[in-house]
Design goal:
The chain is built from eight helices and no strands. It has 147 residues and is an all-alpha fold. The longest helix has 17 residues, at 39-55.
Amino acid sequence: MNQNDFWKLIKLVDVETLDEGDEEGALEKLTTKLATLEEEKIQGFEECLAQFLYNLDGKAYADNAGESGKSGDGFLYCRCYVIAKGEKFYETVLANPTKMPSSLDQWCESLLFVSQNAWAEATGNDPENWNYHASVNYETGSNKTAW
């Protein structure tokens, strides 16, 4: 999956529902669509997600993420929110860390589970058996050069 395909899928996120605090509801269409794709494409989506999360993993972004930037998990969920808001928002934040969301209400932890849930739906497997590992680690602090 290339980046353009990834961002086309991200457009399925219901941003209004996300901003109302219903992460899972906001991601429902994305998960459903992803589940119709081949396993390789689902893995490609996960790879793109990991790369984009990794790109936002840095001190400048954490420093501008308010309370979210003060914990590893909170900062990761905030970065997920940036991606869930779409390509334009992501590019704006990537270019200017001061645009990083600073509210604890601006999280999207559920985005981390979209690929495995879609894979489970597509294959009939238990989501716990998802074993794909992206080429980069998106956990907070993994992008050593940005810290």
